[in-house]
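[stage:ingest] chain + small molecule (2-(butylsulfanyl)adenosine)
[stage:ingest] validated
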Amino acid sequence: MTEQPPEKIKAEIEKLVNELNYHCYRYYVLDSPVISDEEYDRLYIRLKGLEDRYHYILPDSPTQRVGAPPLDKFEKVKHTEPMLSLDNAFSFDEMREFDGRIKRLLKSDEDLDYTIEPKYDGLAIELTYRNGLLSKASTRGDGYEGEDVTQNIKTIKSIPIKIAGDGEIPAEIDIRGEVYMDIEDFNNLNKERERKGEPLFANPRNAAAGSVRQLDSSITASRKLHLACYGVGAFRGIDFASQWEFIAWLKKARFPTPAIVEKHRGIEKIIDALRKLEEKRKHFPFETDGAVVKVNDFSLQKQLGVKTREPRWAIAYKYASHQGITKILDIQGSVGRTGVITPFAIFEPVRIGGVTVSRSTLHNWDEMKRKDIRIGDTVVVERAGDVIPHVIAVIKDKRTGKEREFPMPNKCPACGSRVVREEGEVAVRCIGLNCPAQVRERIIHFASRGAMDIEGLGEKNVELLYSNGLIAHFTDIFTLKKGDLLNLPRFAEKSAQNLIDAIERSKRTTLARFLYALGILHVGEYASKLLARNFEKLDDLFRVKPERVTRIKQIGEKTARSVSDFFNDEQNLRTLKTLKALGVQISNPDFAGKETGERKGPLRGKTLVITGTLPRPREDVEALIEQLGGHAASSVSGKTDYVIVGENPGSKLQKARSLGVKTISYEEFLGLIGENE
Ligand code: IVH
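[stage:predict] done
[stage:export] tokens:
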């Protein structure tokens, strides 16, 4: 037998419900609680205990918000008044046109009162109250008929189950608003979903809509949802003269209203307010893509009426949108001037902030993997200001199973050469000498002073030749004709002849210079010289193994691998043969004799470092070391053979001692090279 609740208990339950609802309102609507969470919990537990014991549960009890048993499907709900959509304006001029239209329709020149509110980006719902109690909550659906989501909506704590406060209570009222999720809560939700391996929501709007349209209301209850009420449908037993008055009633009746509602007379004041709102919206905790401007006066609204599905008395002003949703039709690799290959996506064209976006970089393969971007995916693309577009997320819900990954290529998409990726680096590089994507950088380097020293082939002229189609490949330098140059703006007879002569002269070169000029990754002037000392002819490097290159004492593994990669690429070998066929002749005065390391000079294969002041200028001594087959290095390492210690030595001396590198005096150095008496 259930105990009948004595009047005293009933009164206590009523008091607890009212108190708890008030604190809910303070917390969820006003964001200014007056009691601690613990105190709230204490009251809640007391109420729950009494309700369970006496089976006396008020309809607006907070205990009724926790969710109900899952549904099989949503029931349909017809809206008494259709839920309309809004026409959009994308510029202030369109706002002025809107104002002009209204004035024409009203046959009036007088400035009108308008309200302005942020446009919430969530899910529109209608709350039906009968005699002050929430009887039904429904989605917008097609505008005429939506779905019954009452159980779910009740779990949103800012929504009053009973109209309270000191607002007048109408016999019946349909209140419209938007359910939305704050950006931070959206991010946290996605983080949690990622951890659990669940598909992510593309944006807060999808998260809010997905949370409301749950057959299991306990899921809705677990999501942090908010409501902003901005409109009224059918109502009886109350009257409002304007939007302004209606919003004031909502506030009194403890409904959550838009973060900002303003009223201004005349469209220019509204435009000012739109400008200000664009600034303010940056600080809103929620996303908003615009503002809604409404004719304030309800009788004027009625007079203006509706055209098909949009009221003539309201408009949504949209801020330049920075995001769009589109599909990836293809992913391709693009080769930059320095050979780095970057994946990029080709989209079904989408308009974002007034610009059509049809492609965007995907940065690199690591990034693409991290975001799990595939060909065929539906993605969210963002374009912030003038910045290039980015794919910010994949909408995994839209996957059909036909999406394809885009693997790292093993051949350059521009020239078919080998592609390398260095350990610990994200960049994927084409090492093709004749690669058309790299032709400008390669030629600029090839012609530079330390390399082939071709005067007249600097950056400007290379750009000129390239943009006029005279050089498309590296090998084209040696087929340039004077006649072609004369057609270009910057060349006259003499300058054209000079360039042709300089190119011709460069054809006779040394192996060391030529190797440096090829621009092999990590191979600078010094490494080129070392290679020339150790390899007699260019052909001796063809298909070289990295182990062979590391036998050269001063060359490390990274450089050796790069040299080997370069000379194992068939395209590169073909290009080198073409260069020979075009008349490039390479001598090698640096070669130090047959077989490894057996080089001329008493310092062959030795690395020396100088510290302190010597009796002769340091540069002279360094040149001498190089002349005698050694290498004059600037810093001490494990590879250093000798440190020559002069007067007032620096920290290099300590370094040598700590590494156990042999130190010698200048005199001992002379003894080493047989120069001392
Ligand atoms: S007024 C007939 N006010 O935007 C008037 N709507 O694109 C229609 N929305 O369906 C509603 N914030 O879901 C109004 N402050 C606001 C709004 C707002 C968001 C939504 C609403 C509407 C859609 C139209």
